[in-house]
Amino acid sequence: MPNAVERMLSEEPEALTRCGGEFLLTWDNCTARDAFGIMPGPVPPGTVCCNGREAARIAPDPAPCALEEAIVTAIGLRSDEGVVAFSGGVDSALIAAFAGLPCVAVGLHGSHDAVWAEKAARMMGLDLEVVTPTVDEVAEVLARVVRVIPDPENPVEASIATTLFFVAAWAAEHGHTRILAGQGADELFGGYARYLTSSDLAAELEQDYADHGRQRARDQAVAARHGTYFSMPYLDLRVVRAARAIPAAERVRGGLRKRPLRAVAQRHIPAEIARAEKKAMQYGSGIWRTIQQLARTNGYKKSVQGYLTEISRAEHDY
User: Fold this and answer.
1) How far apart are CA 5 and CA 292, in angstroms?
2) Running DSSP on this structure, what letter comes out for residue 235?
3) How many CA atoms lie within 13 A of 50 on its CB side?
């Protein structure tokens, strides 16, 4: 595959403008970045820049397809190598079912995610490793995370990044560079609890989808520390098109979030997993509670943000 890409870049570089997926390619004096900007890089998303100037736009246009076909295709195209970031939730479980790759979960001993991920993996017959960090390890990783994420003093951002750091570290230790993850599913299908009471669900979904680039920058910054990257099948253009074609009211309805995704999932994974509501990773893993404990231990009884500010200043030497 690398040889084929090299030939295309040298012989037919315009073909790159039709490429989907996630990539950052550099050759001669040119750099190309995928359409959604999932891979971090020095040029704007969806551009080919040569000698510091935009030379072409990347605009893949795959044939329209139904949501299920889009998801199956997106996962299949990303499953030749790597691991799956697994929590036992519908997003990661559906990826794991089609990817056929090793899975890794993160959760302190006895945490919701550690227990549920193991149960879900047994039900699905998956190869799962659960990373169970200690409080001291969380403290050490938190200090490393605030050096690289865009918003280091934001408690939610720091706690998510800390959780993902353990995933990326495990992947790298086991010789993998690609980590398949369920990022984007909440924004596309309506996964956040606040959507249940939203006064304008369509607008909120659009706003959150548009803001997802900030989350990707955080996640990839953490992964890059280990020479890995997060691959996101739900942000494949096919899936994005199919999901956004579904009316907002059909994505969250009758007190159930992510209805279209769950409908697909029930045909491929156990119904108990497809239907289960799940906590956000920073809560389910126990990482957030541990960071709260660390803040209190260090004299910040009411302000995790104050604790993070102290760490950030120390790590940046000011």
Assistant:
1) 47
2) G
3) 8
Task: List, edge to edge, every strand of the sheet that includes 53-57.
Answer: 24-27, 30-33, 47-50, 53-57
Positive or negative: CA dihedral 170, 131, 151, 296: negative
User: What is the spatial distance between Cα 82 and Cα 232, in angstroms, rounded to a whole number?
Assistant: 12
Distance CA 291, CA 304 (A): 8
Which residues of the chain fall short of a pLDDT of 50? 318
- pLDDT tens for 262-295 read 999 999 999 999 999 888 889 999 999 999 999 9
Torsion of CA 99, 103, 106, 109, to 10 degrees: 140
Provide DSSP, 155-220: HHHHHHHHHHHHHHHHHHHTT--EEE--TTHHHHHT-SGGGGG-SSHHHHHHHHHHTHHHHHHHHH
Nearest-angstrom CA–CA distance, 234 and 181: 9
- Any alpha helices (H) in 23-151, and if so which ranges? 67-76, 90-99, 112-124, 135-145
> What residues have CB less than 8 Å from 273, skipping those under 6 apart?
88, 89, 90, 93, 120, 123, 124, 265
* CB neighbours of residue 231 within 10 Å: 29
Structure tokens at 293: 């404990």
Give the span between the Cα atoms of 147 and 221, in whole angstroms.
10
How far is the C-alpha of 15 from the C-alpha of 312, rounded, in Å?
A: 44
**d(C-alpha 269, C-alpha 254), whole Å:** 22
pLDDT, tens only, 215-248: 999 999 999 999 999 999 999 999 999 999 999 9
DSSP code for 277 = -
Distance CA 122, CA 296 (A): 37
